[in-house]
Amino acid sequence: MLYCEVGQFKTSYSSDQAVFPIRQDRIVVGLAVAAAVIAVPLVADEYWLQAVLIPFLIYSLAALGLNLLTGYAGQVSLGTGGFMAVGAYSAFKLSTTFPALSIVIVFLLSGVIAALVGVAFGIPSLRIKGFYLAVATLAAQFFLIWLFNKVPWFVNYAASGTITAPPRTVFGVMVTGPLATAPVRYVVALGVLAAFALVAKNLVRGRVGRSWMAIRDRDIAAEIIGVRPLRTKLLAFTISSFFCGVAGAEYVFLYLGGAETLAFDINVSFLVLFMVIIGGLGSILGSFLGAAFIVMVPIFLTNVPHLLGLALPVALQKQIELMVFGGLIILFLIVEPHGLARLWQITKEKLRLWPFPY
User: Fold this and answer.
1) Could you give the percent of the chain with pLDDT greater than 70?
2) FRET partner for 310 with CA separation of 20 to 30 A, picked from 87, 128, 183, 271?
């Protein structure tokens, strides 16, 4: 028990009051992780794992990488799909050229290659920013997709022009390939996301994260106080591209099983950007909430007419889905421009004060 006297006011403060919420949060996080690792693979069926949870985990990783660049460092990027393609094609070349290489090492090396490409396209960020930087990264998106389309070496000269995930094992368990089960691929994607989320959380609350936010808020003032703009921006591009590269490798190896360049077109870049904006710029949690929104809402809208017993033409149903989906995005941005992460924070604050919220 701590006792403090300041002027006419005397207060007492127990250290247990500060420790208990932290312990409570850790317990909640621990239970959530245990449920995600143990309960979900046992309870969820093939459809939920393959069509919902695995793409959610992969998109969360890509959104996390983009949020580090755009949300924390303030560097707008529209080339996420291109960097994911770099990771996917790098993983394909590495796994087919070096069959004995562990698939975990393949994922990490594909992220490293994507990071090097991200550095190359991030160099102009020292001179340009905002809309002009977005256009530059958009050019990177188009160039990378064109490169993978025109150079057959990237697909091992396959006539179909597609890449497929070869069968690979980890500790004797099939992780990739046609024989890999959905629960195994889900656990692998969950483990990779958890590790990268922990790295991102420690990055943004340390010196690197403070440098990113200083550049984002006032780049000239940040340079005056000693933050080196080029190194800071290139580091943001490097780490963001690394995350997106690993997500691209998982996108093919753990989710699709095979893909062509159309799987990484400009729509993927916009999709991941929407995840970051809807979830909340500059928020680790927002990356997960935005990915969940983008993945879950279209599935919900697709099944609503069937639940209501409405027989709608497929074309009309798709148009209605797009209109409702776009309207929900606009509604969320009007209600809370800071995204779902801010709404979640407000909800938690009101629940702590319940039944007397203000």
Assistant:
1) 89
2) 271
